[in-house]
Amino acid sequence: xxxxxxxxxxxxxxxxxxxxxxxxxxxxxxxxxxxxxxxxxxxxxxxxxxxxxxxxxxxxxxxxxxxxxxxxxxxxxxxxxxxxxxxxxxxxxxxxxxxxxxxxxxxxxxxxxxxxxxxxxxxxxxxxxxxxxxxxxxxxxxxxxxxxxxxxxxxxxxxxxxxxxxxxxxxxxxxxxxxxxxxxxxxxxxxxxxxxxxxxxxx
Length: 203
What we know:
Elements: H1 2-14, H2 18-25, H3 40-47, H4 49-73, H5 80-93, H6 106-116, H7 118-135, H8 138-157, H9 160-176, H10 178-186
Helix pairs in contact: 1-4, 1-5, 3-4, 4-5, 4-6, 5-6, 5-9, 6-7, 6-8, 7-8, 8-9
């Protein structure tokens, strides 16, 4: 029963969407441009770095809160933190009040990783920056991260169970980025250094 509460509460927390709130405030629909998603990367591309950073901080923070909250509220449930993190990520991707069309979940995935193991997350964050700068594609860093995190957490925990739980979020995020992979292949994916400069920004 505890895990059901964890899933429900964390999913609802994950449904909070800063990109949607900002787009409403600015009276623009960021779902009509860029990747069409309500996430941090599309907020950077269409609304600028200020909106993108605020969205990223919010999306990371809610996942951190979900994981830590699960540990505090359900200390007797050994994998409640991993379950909470995944449920929060899925809430971000599939918010019920937005017809289940939210962001792609990467920022919340990072937040989950930070809360699960902050030392490991530092290595992940450094890797994200390096891969992004080398490839000039955010999606390349995203893919590298979602593949390595379940492996790393599984090794650190000495168990396949948390790794299997995290693989659920990994699979969904990879599926959500399938169009990005196609655009990368064709050379039409928006590059990191072009994001936020105004080239694609909603007027």
